Amino acid sequence: MQYWSDILGHQRVQSVLSRAIDGGRLHHAYLFTGPEGVGKFTTAQTLAATLNCERRPADTFAPSCGQCSSCRRIASRQHPDVLFIEPTGKSVRLIKIDQIRQLQKSAVSSPYEGRFRVVLIDDAHLLREEAANALLKTLEEPPARTILLLVTDQPHRLLDTIISRCQRVRFGSLSLETVADALPKLLTQADPEAGDFDADSIDPTLFPVAAGYGEGSLGRSLAMLKSGMLAERQEFLEQMLGLDPRSPIAWLNAAKDLADSGSGFQEKLDVLTVFFRDMMLFKRTGTDRLVNQDLHELIARIEPRFSMEALLTTLDALMSARRRLRGNVNSQLLAEELLDRLRNPQTRALTPPA
Ligand SMILES: [Zn+2]
């Protein structure tokens, strides 16, 4: 995606950046912060294209054309002046010092063909300590005609000294309506990573549900839809709610299933969390403004089996597990600990009284 018009929302961000280009007052480093999946990285990539678009007059903001050789090579990540730095590693994802050294090496020379060298650092909070220190040196003595764009949804994990040397640009959440409306179009857009994903197979009633799950994050809503998790929600929830409290082995097996589901673990935690949040909302207000609108019947049937206290305990356990899963933890241990808390007969969280 290379067009500013394709970026949803964030009008304030767009005007900040376009004014900086117009006035020739670009900072040498920007820090894009905000919830995941709201368009921070897309905006960074679009900014890189705008700066180097061959059809843009100098020092005037004009949206990237998306057609010239520069724009096209930035979209396919093949432009020699636009560097992408992302965390690597399978079990533990980190940005290593070698990656920053490479940036420093290329920053010595001026851009090969573009007006600017643009360096995009995605998930910048995953900089290893020595990599962060190396990057700090670059920020302290910024190379000419080089713009660094750091992107993160967890700025509190960055060194203060890095934050203070960047111009911070805050991205807000998108409205649920914006997300729900955008999903059908985005699903049909070509995505090389999607494999043989069939957009037509998705039930349109899941769009508002996906928007609710994403909490204003287009990326998360899209991922939930594509993984098929939303379609399997009811089956998964009934399975979890039906675990026999007297059978430790059933709970251990369930923990193993959770841990083995890889990236599905986070989604399953999301499903449980949102379901219990819906139950709490339903208990308090009897409202029908639930995220799981389509599971209204299940919620109404299960809700009386839980006290408010049990709902709170469950939510607390789920939310803490979600937070910890985002860090680098052993997922098997995390799953066992979580289910142990939920099975605890004292709190009777996930296990409703017989
Ligand atoms: Zn262009």
Explain what you see.
The chain folds into two domains: 4-170, P-loop containing nucleotide triphosphate hydrolases (Rossmann fold), CATH 3.40.50.300; 232-343, Zinc Finger, Delta Prime, domain 3 (Up-down Bundle). The protein has helices at residues 11-22, 40-52, 69-75, 97-107, 129-140, 160-164, 176-188, 206-214, 218-227, 233-241, 248-260, 264-285, 296-302, 308-326, 331-343; strands spanning 29-33, 82-85, 117-121, 146-152, 167-170. Strand 3 (117-121), helix 5 and strand 4 form a beta-alpha-beta unit. Strands 2-3-4-1-5 form a five-stranded parallel beta sheet, sandwiched between helices. With 354 residues, it is of the alpha/beta class. The mean pLDDT is 88. It contains 15 helices and five strands. Zinc ion binds at residues 53-55, 64-65, 67-68, 70-71.
Quick recap of the structure?
The chain contains 15 helices and five strands.
Reported for the largest beta sheet, the result is: 5 strands, parallel
Identify the CATH homologous superfamily of the largest domain. Answer: P-loop containing nucleotide triphosphate hydrolases
Helix percent reads 40-55%
Q: Output the number of helix runs.
A: 15
The outline comes out as elongated
Going by helix content, strand content and strand pairing, the class is: alpha/beta
Low-confidence stretches: none
Order of helices and strands: HEHHEHEHEHEHHHHHHHHH
Q: For the largest beta sheet, what order do the strands appear in spatially?
A: 2-3-4-1-5
CATH class descriptor of the largest domain:
Alpha Beta
Radius of gyration: 23 Å
Share of residues in strands: 5-15%
Bound molecules: zinc ion
CATH architecture of the largest domain: 3-Layer(aba) Sandwich
- Number of separate domains: 2
Number of strands: 5
Termini separation comes to: 53 Å
Instruction: Let me know the average pLDDT.
Output: 88
Please name the CATH topology of the largest domain.
Rossmann fold
